[in-house]
Amino acid sequence: MTLTRRGFGKVLLAGVSGFAAPRSAREAFAQTHPPNRSLINGVQFGLQPFCYHDLAMTRENRGALIRRLVRNGMGMVELHATWVEPRFNDPGVSAAAARDSLRAWRLSPPAGYYRGIRKELDDAGIAVFTYYVNFDDSYTDAEIDATFEGAKILGARGCVGSFGLAVSRRLVPFPGRHGMFIGLHNHDNLSDPDAYASEASMVTGLSMSPDFKMMLDTRHFTAADGDCVGFLERHHDRIAGMHVGDRRKHNGRSAPFGEGDAPIIELLRMVRDNRWPIVALLEFEHGTLRPEVEEVDLMFDYCKRAVA
User: Fold this and answer.
1) pLDDT by residue (tens digit) across 85-136?
2) How far apart are CA 172 and CA 110, in angstroms?
3) Which of 23, 143, 148, 287 has the greatest count of CB atoms below 10 A from its CB?
């Protein structure tokens, strides 16, 4: 059922029952995810800061990003590598030379660099849940290890990106030796055999390693006519987080929360009632005439009412 914001209040009257997760799972989650300002009635919320469409995702804008996260009441974030790493694409520098310079930087970052950024985030009360980096075939093994090492210093529990099945196979050995996970992020391209789009493709990816976890994107899975609720029921023990957003079915448009077909309320209540240690990272892609921080307020308010 599609819920509008106007009809949201009526839906809130309906209760959803669930079963408690094992105590050990809840305790483990609490130890690795200390309470912060966006832990709402047992559901840990955070932000995918792609939401700030007007803010270039560069390390020079990291201070502005942190201020916005605090302004929006967020205590957790999925941090893109672009907010952390330098860029080497100055005028006259070829793409190949810029890529080589970035690789060299990753292998030998300035002493204390990542710890300094971790302090910026800690001082603002923001925890990094996942580090978003698009691993591809250009990465050397040493570069992948270095990326995990930097992400771990930042406090990230895993690395996530928009790679597919082939790259995932290559990544199998890496997360375990850093005590982290790889987050598999689905999209809606059902015609690409390498992409995570269908439930079958995601199950195939998860089967590669116990260190692989799903970052279920509710917008993309809804657009691909996937069953978000059924997927959560069947695979909740392999889901680390959800990118929570709204969109129409049949590869339809992105929409404000409550105006698309994604079952946001039901998903959040399932996490709440079952006490599953799944982080809800809010994300929107639809156009808005409001400032992005105000749109984030609206969608966060929608979600907080859902789990109240």
Assistant:
1) 999 999 999 999 999 999 999 999 999 999 999 999 999 999 999 999 999 9
2) 28
3) 148
Which is nearest to 212 in space by CA: 260, 164, 259, 250?
164
pLDDT per residue over 23-56, tens digit each?
A: 555 566 566 656 689 999 999 999 999 999 999 9
Q: Which residue has the tokens 């995918």?
A: 48
Dihedral pair phi/psi, residue 194, rounded to 5°? -90, -15
Query: Any idea how long the chain is?
Result: 308
Q: Where are the domains of the chain?
A: 40-306
Report the DSSP beta bridge partners of residue 242: 216, 280
CATH code for the part of the protein at 40-306: 3.20.20.150
Written as six digits, the tokens of 238 are 């392999």
d(CA 115, CA 153): 6
Q: Which amino acid is at 36?
A: N
Q: In whole angstroms, give the CA distance from residue 177 to residue 307.
A: 36
CA distance 162 to 217: 11
Structure tokens at 276: 């599953």
**Under a CB-based contact definition with an 8 Å cutoff, are residues 18 and 271 in contact?**
no
Asked if residues 263 and 228 have their Cβ atoms less than 8 Å apart, the reply is yes
**Cα 73 to chain centroid, rounded:** 17
Q: With beta carbons less than 8 A apart as the criterion, state whether 268 and 244 touch.
A: yes
* R_g (Cα) of the chain, nearest Å: 19
What's the predicted TM-score (pTM) here?
0.88
